[in-house]
Design a protein that fits this description.
The complex is a heterotrimer of chains A (about 375), B (about 325) and C (about 375).
Chain A lengths: L5 H20 L10 E7 L7 H9 L2 E7 L2 H10 L6 E2 L3 H9 L3 E2 L14 H8 L9 E13 H8 L9 H5 L1 H7 L4 E3 L3 H11 L15 H8 L5 E2 L4 H7 L4 E5 H13 L6 E3 L7 E7 L1 E2 L5 H11 L2 H11 L14 H4 L8 H6 L8 H16 L2
Parallel strand pairs in A: 1-2, 1-3, 6-7, 6-8
Antiparallel strand pairs in A: 4-11, 5-8, 5-9, 5-10
Helix pairs in contact in A: 9-17, 10-17, 11-12
Chain B lengths: L1 H14 L1 H34 L2 E2 L4 E2 L2 E4 L2 E4 L4 H8 L1 H34 L5 H9 L6 H12 L4 H8 L2 H8 L12 H26 L3 H8 L4 H12 L1 H16 L3 H6 L7 H11 L3 H33 L1
Antiparallel strand pairs in B: 1-2, 3-4
Helix pairs in contact in B: 2-15, 4-9, 4-12, 9-12, 10-11, 12-15, 14-15
Chain C lengths: L10 E9 L5 E10 L4 E5 L6 H9 L6 E6 L2 E2 L10 E4 L11 H11 L4 H14 L15 H13 L5 E5 L7 H18 L2 E6 L2 H7 L2 E6 L2 E6 L1 H6 L4 H6 L4 E11 L2 E5 L4 E4 L10 E6 L5 E3 L9 E11 L3 E7 L5 E7 L14 E5 L6 E3 L2
Parallel strand pairs in C: 3-8, 3-9, 6-7, 7-8
Antiparallel strand pairs in C: 1-2, 1-4, 4-5, 9-10, 11-12, 11-14, 12-13, 14-20, 15-19, 16-17, 16-19, 17-18
The chains are: A alpha/beta (about 375), B mainly alpha (about 325), C alpha+beta (about 375).
């Protein structure tokens, strides 16, 4: 279990210093924007050359910081004056930030590449951002189950693979057997409670805390069999075989699969799409209301929406991008992978992100704490 | 160049009747301002947030003006909630427990450590002192991370513990949950905290022990006390101030410790620092987070007040 | 005051050497016999080895060579806490965290004495040093003199066979010191304990001790009763160290069994006793200032007199010290008792005066 990663804490300290420098260095904002852009994105979520190419082409110095959960980003946004020009919250967190007036509407005239966006993705995102005023999708994927095929088969023994992949992680009869080869859960309330509610047939993202009523009992029954809580470290554990099942993100599981192949670890990793669907998430670029360099931010968004730039992200980290025009640039093996770009049938079954409130978040956190610690 | 200027400024300042009259108070003024700006003011901000109501990203104002009436809305529901949900009391108690256990072990290890340092040859004492301080030259976070590596399966501390069958004992004591697995247990948590806070125990102990008059031990021996008795009857009572100072320096920060339990602790070692994190980050509930923080501060102030009382008594006795 | 020579000595120090290494020997082949009931003073300036010797008695230092016997028992290998010896430390080393009562009871408790008996003994000790009212105080709440008495009570409480005193009065001011000297001796005699004390203060040693050993550079130069040490010092060092002395160098001019004459050039000594020496031998004559008289006129005869000019005069109340300049720039110190309130013929500064002394005044030092 890695509840807090080194990178997260260092990033936190780093961005404090950054914020300080930003606000002390330029007390008077020049008419022409400073050639600086400050980006706060998820860790391991970009191709190697994306930033460098942008810097070279636009002559803008990019400071690129990482986070690995929405809560950190959100708390910073609420506190204000983050100093960042681009942040990448998940859409359901972005919704709260829109409601709180923390984001700046996009000037679409500065984003000619908007035309490349997939209308389906735009309409899906409009559920959180009506009229697509604030958010541009960076990447999307879904929360699901990843397995080490051989190890799971061996651990289950005479028990056949379930019809619904969610059974693997939410049914004690499977979990009790899988414990022997290691089971990892994402370490965040907002990543565990929605799948559990979804599994129970309730909306995963509900404003009504009563929808989560069945979740504590479900989670309590499987708690003894969870061997690891991890939001990022599980990728390696899955790749090297020290866990055999992960409740994680589709792209991360595919990264693990790829690492196993490249590293020749002999582990056969597979990303599953549950019969009832995974939980769709969209991580979106947005400009904070108090961003110091909003024009540079728009340049960045427009740059990212170039087909080849979006494609390089997908090729690198196995998350789908919203850029319809990028498909020709995506490697065929990735483009044809149904766990990166799911079939229409699978897409139909995916649970879409919904709006959260402070109350529903509190309910999730309490359930999760109780699940994890027994308190 | 600036020296005469500065000097003349101070001269003029001291010549001013206000300063001549209040120069003594002016000196005390500085620490008071420090306390006010860096402790009291933030504390009151937290106190204010703790009785506020949170919107998505803002607070409802405490003072409301409606129909010509000013009303003050203090929301104490967060404090009440602390007593409602046993999560808070349980983690408070866990924090106190782990802080106490850590303090005990720091004292148990730190005392002999400081003792032999203080009794070592005067020429090597600076070097020993340096060794105690040395860990501070490396980031605290990296050092805690290093323990992660050492305690992981196949980490060499872990291997060593298994080799000497220490895991059987720890398992028997309930400090670890499975043989050979040391990480994310009460054991790894306490180990990390003891490791981190040990210098804070050793340094004040060393300071008192090195100041001790060794002839008192000769006097005790002369009166029939064996070295062991002399230690307990003379050395330990005379280092009481150091023991208390060291214990406070360890106990107080341990209560609110967040990073070490996050990195080395497990689900069974949840402490109040994590609850506070959850309130702030996961729940985005600043008032609740502030309420928890206020209670933590109160929890820390009580031992601190006791310590101050003892200090005052000791100073009075010496005068 | 003379020791009972018949009984074997309580404390026997046999050829003790303490070598800390590094060239100098702290204690160099010291042998001493100390008898029951004695107050024996080790006198010397700092670094002479007296404290090291005392610490060897207490057991804090181990002799490099030689043995120490207490009542016939060899103390070698016995740690301090097993020796029936207690010490009163320099500046007392009272336990600051314990009350006066607990300080005194400390040693008794270590012996596992029953509570009632400890209480009895502590009360008795407090009474002995006249501090019963201070039992509940902490050391820092007492005056220097009171602390000294607590220290005494603490070291006497266990009724040691031997008590060691390390500069027992060193921390007190002069007036208090003089009062306390007598009091301390009275208490020690009342208890009847054998004492070895260490001091650099010859007056203290003179007043308190039955016998004194003068030490220098780790060696014992002379052992004797105070008067013996003062009146018949064996060496120049002892003569010089104890009290004031005028030293005159000369050669033996006349040597008879009951009289010698010594010629110092500017003055001729006639000494009223014989010495072991021969005519022509170089000797020193030690002459104490208080044994010299001054007069404005030349006394009769040719010997035991010298003329000088008064260079300065210091009035001390009970006596006056004159500094006479002799021929060739030599100095002579004279101490005159002020028996009269205003002596008419007292020589003034700058005046010529004659110094004279009886033939019993000098000590002839051949070494």
């Amino acid at each position: 279990m890695t509840p807090v990663s080194l990178r997260r804490v260092l990033g936190f300290v780093g961005s404090l210093t950054l914020a300080y420098t930003l606000f002390s260095a330029c007390p008077v904002r020049a008419q022409e924007e400073e050639k600086v852009l400050n980006i706060y994105n998820w860790s391991d979520y970009i191709a190697e050359d994306t930033v460098a190419n942008f810097e070279k082409e636009f002559g803008i110095k990019v400071r690129y910081d990482n986070f690995d959960n929405n809560e950190i980003l959100h708390a910073k946004m609420v506190a204000g004056r983050t100093g960042y020009d681009i942040v990448v919250p998940s859409s359901y967190f972005a919704k709260m930030q829109i409601n709180g007036g923390l984001l700046r509407p996009l000037d679409r005239s500065k984003i000619p590449n908007w035309k490349n966006l997939d209308p389906n993705i735009l309409s899906a995102l409009a559920e959180m951002d009506p009229g697509n005023k604030y958010l541009v999708d960076w990447a999307w994927g879904f929360t699901t189950v990843g397995i080490n095929v051989d190890k799971v088969k061996k651990a289950l023994g005479d028990l056949p693979m379930p019809d619904n992949a969610w059974d693997l992680v939410f049914k004690p009869e499977y979990m009790s057997r899988l414990k022997s080869c290691g089971v990892s859960f994402l370490d965040s309330a907002t990543e565990i409670v929605p799948p559990a509610a979804h599994y129970l047939g309730k909306p995963g993202f509900s404003k009504n805390p009563a929808d989560y009523n069945g979740v504590p009992a479900l989670l309590k029954a499987i708690r003894p069999y969870v061997t690891l809580f991890s939001s990022a470290g599980y990728i390696n554990d899955l790749a090297n075989g020290s866990i055999c099942v992960a409740l994680g993100y589709s792209g991360d599981i595919n990264i693990a699969k790829n690492r196993a192949i490249e590293g020749k670890t002999g582990q056969n990793i597979q990303c599953l799409i549950p019969k009832t669907g995974g939980l769709l998430f969209m991580d979106t670029m947005a400009i904070p209301a108090d961003a110091p360099h909003p024009n540079n931010a728009l340049k960045w968004i427009n740059y990212y929406l170039r087909p080849e730039v979006s494609a390089s992200m997908t090729n690198k980290v196995f998350y789908a991008n919203p850029n319809k025009a990028s498909l020709p640039f995506v490697k065929p093996v990735v483009a044809n992978d149904k766990t990166v770009f799911p079939s229409d049938a699978d897409m139909q079954r995916m649970e879409r992100p919904g709006e959260l409130t402070n109350d529903s978040r509190r309910a999730m956190t309490r359930i999760y704490t109780s699940f994890k610690t027994g308190l | 160049m600036s020296r005469p200027l500065v000097a003349s400024f101070f001269d003029r300042m001291h010549a001013h009747p206000f300063f001549r009259k209040h120069s003594r108070k002016a000196v005390i003024f500085v620490p008071y301002v420090w306390l006010l700006v860096f402790f009291l003011l933030p504390f009151f901000i937290i106190l204010k947030i703790s009785v506020s109501e949170m919107e998505v990203a803002t607070f409802l104002p405490l003072l409301k003006y409606r129909d010509g009436i000013v009303s003050l809305a203090l929301n104490v529901s967060h404090y009440l909630f602390i007593f409602e949900d046993e999560l808070y009391s349980a983690t408070y108690l866990a924090s106190l427990k782990y802080a106490a256990v850590t303090t005990f072990w720091c004292l148990f290890i730190g005392y002999p450590f400081a003792y032999f340092m203080a009794r070592a040859k005067a020429t090597i004492q600076p070097a020993l002192l340096m060794l105690v301080m040395l860990p501070f030259w490396t980031s605290f976070l990296l050092r805690v991370y290093a323990w992660k590596g050492l305690l992981m399966e196949s980490g060499w501390v872990s291997e060593l513990l298994i080799a000497v069958h220490a895991d059987d004992l720890l398992l028997h004591l309930g400090l670890i949950t499975a043989p050979g697995k040391f990480m994310y247990t009460p054991f790894s948590l306490v180990l990390g905290m003891v490791y981190t806070y040990l210098p804070f125990m050793v340094l004040p102990l060393y300071a008192t022990l090195s100041k001790m008059d060794l002839r008192l031990l000769e006097a005790a021996a002369d009166l029939g006390a064996t070295p062991w008795v002399g230690f307990w009857k003379i050395t330990v009572p005379l280092s009481k101030a150091g023991i208390i100072a060291g214990s406070m320096l360890v106990f107080i920060p341990c209560i609110g410790e967040y990073v070490i339990p996050e990195l080395l602790g497990g689900p069974s070692t949840m402490m109040i620092g994590r609850v506070l994190w959850d309130e702030f980050f996961s729940n985005n509930d600043w008032p609740m987070a502030s309420s928890v923080a206020v209670v933590v501060i109160l929890l820390i102030i009580v031992p601190l007040a006791l310590f101050n009382k003892y200090q005052a008594e000791a100073t009075e006795a010496r005068a | 005051m003379t020791p009972a020579t018949a009984a074997p000595a309580t404390l026997q120090i046999r050829d003790v050497v303490k070598d800390f290494g590094g060239g100098s020997v702290a204690v160099n082949h010291v042998s001493l016999d100390i008898h029951k009931g004695e107050i024996f003073a080790l006198l010397g300036s700092s670094g002479c080895g007296k404290t090291t010797l005392l610490r060897m008695l207490a057991g804090f230092e181990i002799p490099t060579q030689g043995s120490i016997l207490l009542d016939g028992q060899d103390l070698a290998g016995l740690p301090p806490y097993l020796r029936p010896i207690n010490m009163m430390f320099q500046s007392y080393a009272l336990f600051p965290h314990l009350t006066v009562w607990d300080n005194i009871a400390f040693g008794l408790k270590r012996d596992g004495m029953p509570k009632e008996r400890i209480a009895e003994r502590v009360e008795a000790m407090l009474k002995l040093v006249q501090l019963p009212k201070y039992a509940k105080r902490k050391p820092h709440q007492l005056s220097g003199g009171q602390q000294q008495r607590v220290a005494l009570a603490r070291s006497l409480a266990k009724r040691p066979q031997l008590m060691l005193l390390d500069e027992p009065l060193g921390a007190l001011d002069k007036k208090l010191r003089e009062e306390t000297q007598i009091e301390l001796v009275n208490i020690i005699h009342e208890v009847g304990v054998t004492c070895v004390m260490v001091t650099h203060d010859q007056e203290e040693a003179m007043t308190m001790a039955t016998r004194i050993a003068v030490m220098s550079e780790g060696k014992i130069l002379q052992v004797g009763a105070p008067a013996e040490i003062y009146e018949t010092p064996a060496t120049r060092f002892v003569a010089d160290f104890i009290g004031n002395v005028n030293m005159m160098e000369g050669t033996v001019a006349v040597d008879e069994p009951d009289m010698v004459e010594i010629d110092c050039g500017y003055c001729r000594h006639r000494v009223g006793h014989g010495i072991t020496g021969t005519v022509g031998m170089e000797v020193s004559v030690a002459l104490r200032p208080e044994k010299i008289r001054l007069s404005r006129t030349k006394p009769e005869g040719q010997v035991n007199q010298v003329q000088g000019t008064v260079r300065d005069r210091s009035y001390f109340g009970s006596f006056t010290v004159y500094n006479l300049e002799l021929a060739g720039g030599r100095r002579l110190k004279v101490s005159e008792s002020n028996v009269e309130r205003h002596r008419e013929d007292a020589p003034a500064e700058g005046q010529v005066a004659w110094a004279t002394w009886p033939d019993t005044a000098q000590v002839v030092l051949t070494q």
